[in-house]
Specification:
Elements (H helix, E strand, L loop, with lengths): L2 H9 L1 H17 L3 E7 L6 H20 L8 E7 L4 H13 L5 E4 L3 H14 L3 E3 L14 E3 L4 H14 L4 E6 L3 H13 L6 E7 L8 H8 L5 E5 L4 H11 L6 E3 L6 H7 L7 E4 L15 H15 L5 H20 L4 H9 L4 E2 L4 E2 L15 E6 L2 E4 L2
Parallel strand pairs: 1-2, 1-3, 3-4, 4-5, 6-7, 6-8, 8-9
Antiparallel strand pairs: 10-13, 11-12, 13-14
Amino acid sequence: MSLVHSALRLIGTSSFAAVMALGAVGAKAQAPIRVGAFLAVTGPASFLGDPEEKTLKMLVDQTNAAGGVLGRKIELISYDSAGDAEKARTFTKRLIEQDKVDVLIGGSSTGETMAAVPLAEQAGVPFISLAGAVVIIEPVKKWVFKTPHTDRMACQKIFVDMKARGFTKAALISGSGGFDKSMRAECLKVAPTDGIQIVADETYGAADTDMTAQLTKIKGSGAQAVLNAGFGQGPAIVTRNYKQLGLSQPLYQSHGVASKEFIKLSGDAAEGVRLPAAALLVADILPANDPQKGVVTKYTQDYGARYKSDVSTFGGHAYDGFMIAINAMKAANSTDHAKVRDAIEATKGYVGTGGVVNMSPTDHMGLDLSAFRMLEVRNGTWTLVK
């Protein structure tokens, strides 16, 4: 006689069915919470995706070691989109339809993110992007959020600093990528409002290895300061060419190069370069009473101990995305997509690596200009501009 038949004789058919049903419910309750990610771990944007994936892996391990969330372990399902928008779309579709993830975190670049947005919106899956362009959250999309400061905010922070130094005429030089184009457009849009006249507007291609021609035009434009809207290898080339040509005007970069890798690639040409970035890059020199001090210091120490490398603001974007998602699940006491989405949108007072986040139905990022710190390279490292 089988074990099933024996059980039926002992407890009765209906009772046995109830036991089996309870067992199924228990098994389901213990199923892991699935966090889906698509990141540029390799390729030209790996300086973004590599620290992002490492951060997510570290946080998943830490969370599981502490007992998980809602009594369940976290499972990270991550794909390498290599910065390719089409791959990002394919992986997003797989994460939603096959992997059945509870939340999406990723899109190292704006192009990858925008390829995934329609899929997340159609499926009704909460999606937290790690990319910079303002188009990701404007206009507001029901299921889409982001953690990095926007390119528009970067323009405004830089222009405020220029005005404080007495500069009113600026030159733009930007790359051809999605972030570069978006930031250029935002800078052109807000410059008049911020009292800045754009006297030169130059661009370069993704494969360009020398920008002296564009910088030579800028040199004779009458610009009092120069802003490079871009990320990747381009800004380091611009910075080196800038010094080679002997340009004396202050050079600003975007938050898209906010990592020590930029300083390494630029060498001593980076000396004096300014850019807006998160407090994470200067965790060690923040005042003790800074509200972000504890968070950014612990993340810096944990990441360094595990990976034997420096943190970057890009990994910080992933840190904030993961924590916001997990906090939302706790607040909702559920992984139901709609409930988690509502809880993310209701995030208030979250102190992260990027700033203090206060989201709303009209703001799916939740950061204001105070979340940016103006940094300057001095003696090969970041310093806070007073």
